[in-house]
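re: ur question from earlier - yeah i can do the single chain one, its not a big deal. heres the input i used so u can compare w yours
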Amino acid sequence: MKRLKLPMMHAMWCSLCLLVLATTSAQAGDRPFKKVPSFDFADGSYLDNGINPDNILDRLVGQDERSVKDRSRDRDFADVRILETTGGFDHKGHVLYYTVNGKAMLDTFTDDEAGREAFEIANEFRAFIFPKADGLPLSPAPPNRRQDNVFDTRHGYFSNDPLGLWLLVFVSYTDKAFVTEEGLDALFVLAVKNGLNLDGTPVIKTVDDLEDLEEAGFVQFQSRALDGSQGFPWVI
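and the output i got, formated as tokens:
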């Protein structure tokens, strides 16, 4: 598949991206933390990569609680510096930090080849959200979450998802996880490895564990309707 035009280095700080927390000095040396600006993308960069900037929902404007006006020294970024940062896990369970630049609907993708490529990329890269058992099953609101997000970064995130486009995938436990011996054993193993959430269920940190649980029928994956009838399906 043809990939988009934003330089690889610029993908190292995009929305929902790559300030991976270094756990060793070697890892810290691999990431240019001080060199990558936490700015929103410029309109031209969005358009080059298949996104209509006018149709981004909740885009940061530099005069809100999550961002401020600042001067970017790179033409691929706008003069909007992002203040809000939150944490999650990459596909291997390593801690990462990310920003959310906005939300995307179908009309956020441009009606051309770049937009079709962006749409394909957005559906390839999954952000797993974990709603509370007694909460709304398709709500990504932070108060509705039982743990931090897990991002499927296996598909060449640095080079192949330049804008940081993600499909929201909501993870819920099934009854089988709690009423079968196999399910309880699987939850026990995860609890020993990762600890428990406040609701008493195990923390899940890796995509492999997620897919194993889903294949065994202990969790289910759900996405919002792509037509936007259940809310925005993608984030940037």
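The chain has one domain: 8-235. not sure if urs matches, ping me
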